[in-house]
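Translate structure to sequence.
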């Protein structure tokens, strides 16, 4: 089992608490944990969700395709139809929410996590909203465990220690 990271894990870290300039150790830690097989994401996250942010985050993500960012595979792709069928059959969500989910990277990420028994890491929270299908809601329906970035950091005993001056 590994932790499969949603794009918002990277985006919120960069924008708020672990910017490249203030906490480079977070980004180095991700590389180490990816090499150790503990964290990963999928190529579509790097190519479709990080790319629009441009700059350092885009460059960082694209440089890690094949290591941190894994390609989709047949096992994961085989589950996508079931996820979209679940969304389409669910009368709670609006048609627009279903269309958005069905064409999103989220459906691929959930399929990958499910196919490989990974825990999906996201900053999204469960919601009864009708206008957006949230990752934790779908994961609950398909028995995919979810955690936040900080829960993952605690589980893996991450430590970002200031170097001595």
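Result:
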């Amino acid at each position: 089992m590994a932790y499969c990271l949603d794009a918002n894990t990277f985006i919120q870290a960069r924008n708020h608490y672990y910017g490249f300039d203030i906490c480079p150790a977070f980004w180095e830690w991700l590389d180490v944990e990816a090499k150790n097989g503990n964290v990963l994401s999928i190529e579509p996250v790097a190519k479709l969700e990080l790319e629009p942010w441009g700059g350092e985050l885009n460059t960082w993500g694209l440089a890690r395709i094949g290591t941190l960012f894994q390609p989709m595979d047949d096992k994961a792709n085989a589950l996508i139809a079931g996820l979209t069928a679940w969304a389409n059959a669910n009368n709670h969500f609006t048609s627009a929410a279903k269309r958005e989910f069905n064409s999103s990277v989220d459906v691929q990420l959930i399929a990958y996590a499910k196919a490989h028994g990974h825990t999906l890491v996201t900053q999204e929270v469960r919601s009864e909203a009708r206008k957006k299908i949230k990752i934790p809601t779908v994961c609950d329906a398909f028995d995919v465990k979810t955690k936040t970035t900080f829960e993952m950091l605690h589980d893996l005993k991450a430590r970002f220690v200031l170097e001595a001056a």
